[in-house]
Structure formats: C-alpha cells, structure tokens
Amino acid sequence: MTNTWLQTLAQAESMIPLLGKLGRERSVKIELAGNPLMADSVTGLMAAFDQHPESDLTQVYQVLEQVLASDVSHTVVELESLLAEADIASVLAAKPKSGAETPVVLYGFGRIGRLVARRMCTLGHTTPGMNLAAIVVRKACNNDLSKRASLLKYDSVHGVYEGLVKVDEVNQALIINGLPVKIIYASDPAEVDYHAHGIDDALLVDNTGRWRDRDGLNVHLNRPGISRVVLTAPGKEMKNIVFGVNDSDVTEDDRIISAASCTTNAITPILSVLENEYGIESGHVETVHAYTNDQNLIDNIHKSDRRGRAASMNMVMTETGAAKAVSKAIPTLEGKLSGSAIRVPVINVSIAVLSLNLKSTSSAEEINQLLKRASNSAELTGQIGYSDGADAVSSDFIGSQQAGILDSLSTKVRDNQAILYVWYDNEYGYSCQVVRLMEKLTKLNAFNEKKSVTLQTDQAA
C-alpha cells in the first residue's frame, strides 16, 4: 500500500512542471472529467486522481508530454478524451494553435470582485483566452492602492492568498503574480475611456449590482474598449446563465449577460437533473443564507425593514428571487417554485432546502445515487458536489469550487415528495461559476476573431 502511495505521489509530482508550463506559456488548461488539474499542489492532483482510480498515471504523463510538444494554445484540453484516443497527434492538430487573450475589466472590487480576481490569478490555475487587465473602483482613501492590495491578499473567510501581490504607485496598478493590473478610479462608468488605458475589446464584469437592467449596463458597453458585459447578480431584460445548465444559450451576439445569483447557481444544476429524470410538479426553496454586506451590523435605518436589524445577532427573514429565477435556466419550471430566505449570523456558506413534489415516486437512495453520478460527470462536476460526511457542517464547505453540494445524508423522500439539502459557498463557489462563464465568452471572442481573419483573407483573395 505504501509503495503504491509513494509511486502515485512521485507521478503526481512529475506532472507539476508540465502542467505549469502548459498554463504559463500556452494558456492551456488540462481537465479530467471537467475538473481542472492545477500546477500548484501535489495534494490537489492526488485528490483529483483518487476520484478517478481507473486513470493510468503513466499514460497521463505521456499525454501531457505530447500536449506540451504540440503547438496548441489558449484552449481547454479534456484529458479523458485524449486518453481514449489512439491517434493523439491528430486530435491535438485540430485544436487552436494560437489566439489573442481577451482583456478582463472588473468593475467593482468587493467580495465577488476580489474572489474572481483570486480565481483568475490562482497560481497553477489557467483561464485560457483571458487576462485580468484592469479594476475600476471609487477611490476610498489616500492609500487606496495599498488597501486594495491588502484586501486581496488577506481575507477573514478565505484566508491568505498564496500568490504575490505588490503595489505599483507610479503606474497606479497592482502586480498580481507578476501581472500588472491597472487600477482605474471612477465614480461612474460613463467617465471611463478604456482605450486611454490600452484596453480594447474587453470583457467587463460588473460586480457592484448597482445596475441590473439592460439600459443601466449599456453604459458600460458604450464605453471605448468594452465589447461584452457580465453582471454578477440576477438581471432583467437579458439572459440569466447558470453555467453547466443553460450556457449553450449564449451566442456570439450576446453583449450583456447575467450570471444569475449564488443561490440560483447552487440549486439549478440539481433541479435540472431531477427535472430530467422525474419531472417536478411543484416545490419550495428555503435558503438559510449567510449574512451579506447589504445588512446592518447593528440596528439602523435600512430600505428593507428586517435587513436593518443587527446581522450578527439575528436570524432575519427576507425575500429571494432565486426560485423564480430558476425558470430562466429551466423554462419547464416556470411558475412551479416558490422561495424565501433566512439570513443567519454566519459569515459565509449557505444551505438551500429544496422541498419538491416529483411527477413520479422515488427513494432517498435512488436520488442520492443519481446526483452522485451527476457530480462525477464531466458536464456537471463543477456544478454539483456530493457530501456523505456524517460530521459535515457549514464551515467545511468554505472554498468549495462547486456551485452546490448535496448533503446526501439529509435527503428525505416519501413517495413523490423529496426534501434535499444543498450547501454552497455563496462567495467562492459562485465566483468559480462566474469565471467559467467568462471563459465561455472569451471562446466566442476568439471564434469571432478567427472568423474575422478568415473573412479578410477571403476578401483579399
């Protein structure tokens, strides 16, 4: 047993330089059953391979060598598909050979903005086809740059960021793992000319939630240098996308898109699996949600009555649009779900309780196994997690990359009535979903650029 463990450890260690070089020099992300293999942790690789004991690590290493020897770049490589191929060279030859990186602008640098930045700039993690170019904020104090750097580096919930963060006062930028990220100070999006900062054809991610309709977000889109906008909140008059469920609805013509909410992202993938397997007649979603920055720490005036009461002392009844928003990703559930929320004195990680009336009878064991299979599928491994931990509590899920994690030991089923409990890191899990959507959009940008070059070549001929 020990020899097998040490052998696996040695094989995982040998892959780190290959994965690092592919990500650093080629912007190539390697995935195994939908999970990215990251170059920052041998333990992380060991955990990934432990989930797939059928993988021959000697063969995996050889495939990584072949990918590195090829000229693919700015793409995602699905490892399992290459492992099944006899002619790997032909598969790699069909992959993109080069491509421009799409600059990303974060408008707002609060909880979600900083975690999106962490995810994009994680050592060993690759976000093919995009790079963090700028962050737009209001200037808060004289030493604002240092404060922004400190908030990125040190986080009370998610711990110390393992990357290097430095301040460049002369160029008004943060240097994150050697990458200069321009800090642009503005109080209104209409003030910013991104061309003046050397930014063109950028994807802007609005993390403020200040504008949630098309007219408001169009102000971003009309600024020089911005080509697409992603809203990290539920949006009106636009597509609300839950990656892994309805991201196929995104087209190259979509310029403004919502990434929906953290709760919608947590519950929609699981609901989609149940809807496809059993059909859902009706249901109610109750989310027990960590308190957020829009609540008062102590009793004070608030536009929402109950949210004005002390967040750290009370359970606070409030509303949520997450249940209704599910139908934007799963149209067959239109009008079938109700929802409400309770904000509780926990700083992060929430749980959604799904009370569902299915169209056919089932059992807890059957539903758990169905969702466990979904959690291991390449299509939904990033969206659905599976927990069978007898001692699991909310803090165990801080830093979870999945949108939602089923607490399988809590599943209750009686005939066609099912109650499921879904944990979710409402900060980091959601931020990972946002980054996945961003990657999808940058692929569309690359496609448009390639098509543009082809058209120009055809016209020249």
Key terms:
Rossmann fold; nine-stranded mixed sheet; Dihydrodipicolinate Reductase, domain 2; alpha/beta; globular; disordered C terminus
Structural class: alpha/beta
Q: Looking across the biggest beta sheet, what order are the strands in?
A: 8-9-10-5-4-11-12-14-13
Percent of residues in helices:
25-40%
Using only C-alpha atoms, the radius of gyration works out to 23 Å
Quick one: CATH class of the largest domain? Answer: Alpha Beta
Number of strands: 22
**Main sheet specs:** 9 strands, mixed
CATH fold group of the largest domain: Dihydrodipicolinate Reductase, domain 2
Distance between the termini: 64 Å
Which architecture name of the largest domain does CATH use? 2-Layer Sandwich
What is the overall silhouette? globular
The named CATH superfamily of the largest domain: Dihydrodipicolinate Reductase, domain 2
**How many domain units?**
3
Mean pLDDT: 90
Instruction: Kindly estimate the percentage of residues that lie in beta strands according to DSSP.
Output: 15-25%
- Uncertain stretches: 450-461
Number of helices: 12
Word description of this protein:
The protein has 461 residues and is an alpha/beta fold. It folds into three domains: 2-93, no CATH class; 102-233 and 432-459, NAD(P)-binding Rossmann-like Domain (Rossmann fold, 3-Layer(aba) Sandwich), CATH 3.40.50.720; 262-426, Dihydrodipicolinate Reductase, domain 2 (2-Layer Sandwich), CATH 3.30.360. It has helices at 2-26, 42-50, 57-69, 79-83, 88-93, 111-120, 144-153, 214-221, 262-277, 322-329, 364-375, 428-460; strands at residues 28-32, 35-36, 75-78, 102-107, 130-137, 154-155, 159-160, 165-168, 173-176, 179-185, 202-206, 226-231, 239-240, 256-258, 280-290, 316-318, 337-344, 350-358, 384-387, 404-407, 412-414, 417-424. The strands form four sheets. Strands 8-9-10-5-4-11-12-14-13 form a nine-stranded mixed sheet, sandwiched between helices. Strands 15, 16, 17, 18, 19, 20, 21 and 22 form an eight-stranded mixed sheet that branches. Strand 21 (412-414) and strand 22 form a beta hairpin. Helix 6 (111-120) packs across helix 12 (428-460) and helix 9 (262-277) packs across helix 10. It is globular. The termini are far apart. Mean pLDDT is 90; it is low at 450-461.
